[in-house]
Structure formats: structure tokens, C-alpha cells
Amino acid sequence: MQEFQGKVAVITGAASGIGLEMARLAASLGMRLALADIQQGALATVVDEFEGQGVRAFGLRTDVSRSADIQALADATLARFGQVDLLINNAGVGAGGLLWENSEQDWDWVLGVNLRSVIHGVRIFTPLMLEHAARDPAYRGHIVNTASMSGLINAPAMGVYNVSKSAVVALSETLYHDLSLVTEQVHCSVLCPYFVPTAFSDSARNRPEALASQTPLTRSQLVAQANSVKAVSSARISAAQIAELTFAALREERFYVYSHPQALAPVRERYEAILEQRNPGDPFAGKPDVRARLIADLRG
Ligand SMILES: NC(=O)c1ccc[n+]([C@@H]2O[C@H](COP(=O)([O-])OP(=O)(O)OC[C@H]3O[C@@H](n4cnc5c(N)ncnc54)[C@H](O)[C@@H]3O)[C@@H](O)[C@H]2O)c1
């Protein structure tokens, strides 16, 4: 995608963090914005910010785990702007802890927001983009799915999140192949950030009552939460930089987007272990103190 002026971007999780910075960058490039988030108040504030700058934007309270909400987002975008050029499936949440301690509600919540959202987004928006492409040979569409480095390596004590993001990488790679079978006008990318300072560690603020944990957090869940707070808050690449990196990839039609390419060694090691039939290595081998601290914390 080379042209952004006047084009329409649909961004989920747009009220905070990476989604908000994607929206700000898209607005600075002259795009019109359809913004979705489950936080009604924060979303309204963001829309006010854009309207105050003369940006054409609307917000729709959306629970991305619900198919009907994503359909409503698509309908509202077409009704308001008549087209969709860029879809950023970005909303996401995290839950950690030892795998066997995660509740059914943990799985339903995280897989709903992180994976079903992308399934719905791709299922509902891709046909619209393909219709635009069929009508206009100059049309260029792009879909960005926000995964994570956790879609490429499986660090311990964050299994639910790892599973959700690995599935987003698998879905995105398949989407890439499927699109290439039918069009040259619609492309896709998968964004795999490492830690970025956002409100991500406070994901539970948006956890619906119906999926609330029925039991107090276990020791491993408290440890994982503390580690997430520490890693996310001390991260040095900002959400605004992630947005810049993503839009650079859009321009280049590049599929994989990394925030920390220097941190990819564990990915190489993982695939080498798979190919050589070695047992999985420590994803944090480069930082042995992380594993040692985790063991010490878990064993008390
Ligand atoms: N921050 C990091 O370190 C990091 C690292 C890797 C990947 N990511 C991914 O980046 C994406 C954005 O996260 P962030 O870091 O900006 O966190 P954030 O918490 O600042 O923003 C996430 C946004 O998603 C929204 N959201 C949550 N549940 C929703 C739902 N059911 N429906 C609609 N919106 C919902 C939240 O209200 C929030 O505005 C997520 O997919 C996350 O998994 C973040």
C-alpha cells in the first residue's frame, strides 16, 4: 500500500497503546478512521482528539470477540465511508501462569479477544476488500494482524497467550498464501512485537464479568503478572515506533513486522530444534537470570 491520503483504516483496540498510535499515524497520513474498542469512554476521548484536528473519524464500541460486533463495525464503516482500505486487527489481552492453572474462563477470554477477533475480522472484511479490488484495478488493500513474539516462541508461564498468538501467526501466514492465489491487490502482514510500554499488563481492566476468574490468582499467575508489568513498563521501543515500523512494512508489502529484530535468536533456535528433533531450548537462554528468577519465584 503506497497511498494513504483519503483511504479508510479500520483499527481495533484503538483506544490505547499500539492501536491508538496506529490511528494517530494513519490520521497524520490523511486517512479516515473507523476506530473500535471495548472501552467506550476512552474511545470517545480518542475520537474527540481526532475530530478536534479535523480528522474524519468515528468510534464504535466493539467487543472484538463477538462476530456480530465485527459485522456491525464493517457495516458502520461502509455506511460512513463507503470503503475499507486498511484493517488492523490489533485488540488483544494477556493472561499468564502455569498452563494447568488457567481456568476455562481464562481460555475463553484470551482466545476470544486475541484469536476469534482476527478470525471474524478476516472472514468479514476480506470479501469487502476483494469486492473493492474487483471493481477498481487501482485499489490496494492491506490487513495487519497483531500477533506477538509469543506467536513465534513459547516462553514458560504464558501458555494461553502463546497459543492465541501462535494461532494468529498461523492464520496470517495462511491468509498471505490464500490472498496470493486470488489477487495482487490485497496484502497482509503479521505484527510480532516484543515488549512495548502500553497498558497491556493491565489487560484485566477489560475482562468481562461473565468471564471473570472464579478463583483467586495462583502463585504462578501472580508471578507472571508481576513479570509482565516489569517487562512491559521497562520496554524501550514505543507504541508510536511500532506504528512507524508497521506502516513501513505496508509500503514495502512486507509480511513479517518485528519490533526487535535483534531478539529473533530464540526463533532461529526453536526452528533448528524442531528440524533436528532436539527438545525445546529455553526461549530466554540469552538471559539465564530470567529463568532462574522464575524458578525461584515459583518454588517459593
Ligand atoms: N505491549 C506489549 O508488550 C505487546 C507485545 C506484543 C504484542 N502486543 C499486542 O499488541 C496489541 C495491542 O496491545 P497494547 O500493548 O497496545 O495494549 P493496550 O492494553 O494498551 O491496548 C489494547 C486495547 O485493546 C482493547 N480491548 C481489549 N479487549 C477488547 C475487546 N474484547 N474488544 C475490543 N477491544 C478490546 C483495550 O480496551 C485496549 O484499548 C495486543 O494484541 C497485544 O497482544 C503487545
Mean pLDDT: 97
CATH level-4 homologous superfamily: NAD(P)-binding Rossmann-like Domain
- The sequence of SSEs as H and E is EHEHEHEHEHEHHEHH
The percent of residues in helical segments reads 40-55%
What do we call the CATH topology? Rossmann fold
Q: How many independent structural domains?
A: 1
Q: Determine the number of helices (DSSP H or I, runs of at least 4 residues).
A: 9
As a percent range, the share of strand residues is 5-15%
Overall geometry comes to globular
Distance between the termini: 52 Å
CATH class: Alpha Beta
CATH architecture: 3-Layer(aba) Sandwich
Bound molecules: nicotinamide-adenine-dinucleotide
Radius of gyration, in Å, reads 19 Å
The order of strands across the largest sheet is: 3-2-1-4-5-6-7
Number of strands: 7
What does this structure look like?
The chain is an alpha/beta fold and 300 residues long. It has a single domain, classed as NAD(P)-binding Rossmann-like Domain (Rossmann fold). The protein has nine helices and seven strands. The longest helix is centred in the middle third of the chain and has 32 residues. Bound molecules: nicotinamide-adenine-dinucleotide (NAD).
